[in-house]
Fold:
Amino acid sequence: MKAADEPAYLTVGTDVSAKYRGAFCEAKIKTVKRLVKVKVTLKQDSSTQLVQDDQVKGPLRVGATVETKMPDGSFHEATISKLTDASWYTVVFDDGDERTLRRTSLCLKGERHFAESETLDQLPLTNPEHFGTPVIGKKSNRGRRSSLPVTEDEKEEESSEEEDEDKRRLNDELLGKVVSVISSSEKTDWYPALVISPSCNDDITVKKDQCLVRSFADSKFYSIARKDIKELDVINLPKSELSTKRGLQEASTFFNTKGVPGNWKMDMSEILESSSSDEEDGAAAESDEEEDKQDEKQEEATLIA
Structure:
């Protein structure tokens, strides 16, 4: 969880600690693909909306009073209740390597350089007999890239993780976008659809290389391979096709007004809702806990020997 005084998103050139193979290492942000999800409470009726930061006028901080763009294009006064940084950051490590990471894998430089339970005030410095483990932190490689050779298994694991991140990033970038979906092997037959959050339909399994879409043509849900999806240039479609292609009129209406078809019985907050950040936080926490347990076992074995 971000500290209350942290910015809604990080900017190019910011010095950070970036997670690399279980450890946080010094890096600098090179590029940013910005996407901040903003949950607001409308003052007129106390209802909540989930929108992107480009639909908000005002300071991006929890509790701030802002103006939020509505589906009809008008702006209504609201209060920000939650901010989620879903941006993708490309960082450069001090050895020149680059990685593209989510906000959950970054922290402002210096945040995690020590644990609260290991401050000098709480360590038994006055009585050496009470030392159970070394005073120095457990992870000697935290904050510095390891110079040890990487095994082939580690390389394959790292490559697989990066591929998964790339696929997840592509899916997140398409979330809430109008797309064309190829529906035949000839690649000439297609239908307009909207990429929505996998949480919108629990009955359909969505794999890592797939997106969940809802067709504007028949309003049904489909799990589609990423390679069969392309963002649709609604503005430049010929008028003749708009009037003849099934579902294109509804797709055009959504593109221009963010108005979801009435028979869908869902709103933008459901469409944009993504659990990827929470999943990454949970996975990161589990990974760190497992590493800590392994380190503790190794240290105990060393002390006994």
